[in-house]
Amino acid sequence: MTDTTVNKPLGLVRGMDKVWLALAVILALLALLDWPQFIPAVQFASKALLGTAPFIAFAVFAVAYLKATGAETLLAKAFQGNTIKMIFVAALVGGLAPFCSCEVIPFIAAMLALGAPLAAVMAFWLASPLMDPAMFLITSGTLGWDFAMGKTLAAVGVGLFGGFATLVFARSPLFNDPLREIPKVGCSCGSNNSFDGIPQWRFWTDADRLTAFKDSAFSNAKFLIKWLALAYVIEALMLAYIPAETVARILGGEGIGPIILGAIVGAPAYLNGYAAVPLIDALLAQGMSQGAAMSFVIAGGISSIPAAIAVWALVKPRVFAAYLGFAITGAIMAGLLWQTIAA
Asked: What is the membrane topology noted in the UniProt record heading this document (predicted)?
């Protein structure tokens, strides 16, 4: 006979959101192992989250509005015209559009199947995970307007770099026959509502679009709050337990070494772009160089699991390897340039 007394708590844990679960476990361990640090950590995270709240609210509204109006349809314009124009437009749209990586998989799959040049798609893929309206507001609210603008320009720049590099080597064996068999891929981020045709900016006159607005606002607010709450707690622990001189020694200074290390560490370590912002804030406070911070967020954003899955799902491993190579190289170049500007 099954012991329901044991299974019921286990079922609750399994059904709990993993981010909230991680936050609860971290706080429980902190309370158990270092109670004097528990209250300051909770106060720090709460104050930081409240300070970011206006940026979260505006970002949630902006993304929900664009979702409800059907602005995704404007994405098709990035893949029309001559190839050079497409690369520029795709990099700009990718760096500014509020669409998560998995949302654009079906669209990109259709464009590739219809013969859209891989160079333009590569530009979009590289720029897309790095910046969107919500990311810009969270970044500017925590790291400052200058860093947010620098990352936005870096997102477009890395997209252009990868797009034109792909164009130059388009006829090489690396990019020959790049596609896998196009899969059917679902999406779990944001609202699943999508609209075809011309965007309807007065969305509230349509019941379906109004529902899409509410669904998108709720899901994005929940997404941002849970990740930022976890990130701010981790930031508090980093400031409390990681020696500043260690960070300054490894990731500080003006040379190229910390920038390369930031890109290399950022690529596999990145979990979520929003959560990375408070962590970078903590590392900068402890001596991380500006260039290393920029290379970390660029390399990490492009290689993050959602962004990488979007590319891996559609292209062959050699093209995926090129995507990662462009990410690391572009991140190092962005870090070097930002280090010069910041200095």
From this structure: Multi-pass membrane protein
